[in-house]
Amino acid sequence: MANRRPAYATIGYAADEQGRGIVYARLSAEGKVRVLRAGFSSPRAGDARAAGFAALSSMVPRLRKMAENIELAIDDAELVDDLNARRELPVPLMLPYVRTRCALNAFTSCRLTATRAPSDLAARARAEVSTLIAA
Fold first, then answer.
1. pLDDT, position 56
2. What domains, with CATH codes, occur in the chain?
3. How far apart are the first and last CA of the chain?
4. 69, 107 contact by CB (below 8 A)
5. Residue 70 has what DSSP assignment?
């Protein structure tokens, strides 16, 4: 799995008020594009920042199976800033942050960027989460 060029993945996610959510990733690696899906549960129901950490933590192991070096584009600038700046967080977010950083450290190299465009993956996740709520 020694990929020379970094893989590229866009990430989109959504969670309900209980912290249950869906995360999607569109992975471009070695000339192939794949869409991956994972469920997640945030221990802090209703907390969007905690949901972001939980979403990324649940997707990273799937991505790591397919790439060693990766750039992750996430449509959540605050999450990207939290992880890149390694800034101080409120105590309830420290454990989710540590779990996410540990997951990301499994990559040989990982670059996080915030996307500016609306994510079709996030829209897909929101639609799925709203369907689960209605069911």
1. 96
2. 7-128 (3.30.420.10)
3. 41
4. yes
5. E
Long-range CB contacts (< 8 A, 24+ apart) of 24-33? Answer: 24/121, 24/122, 24/124, 24/125, 25/59, 25/62, 25/63, 25/121, 26/121, 27/63, 27/66, 27/67, 29/3, 29/66, 29/67, 30/3
Give the per-residue pLDDT at 54: 96
- Grouped pLDDT means (10 residues each) for the chain, 135 residues: 76 93 94 95 86 96 95 93 89 93 96 85 92 65
CA distances from 21 to 45, 82, 111 (A): 10, 20, 24
pLDDT of residue 88: 87
Q: Would you tell me how many other CB atoms lie within 10 Å of the CB of residue 115?
A: 18
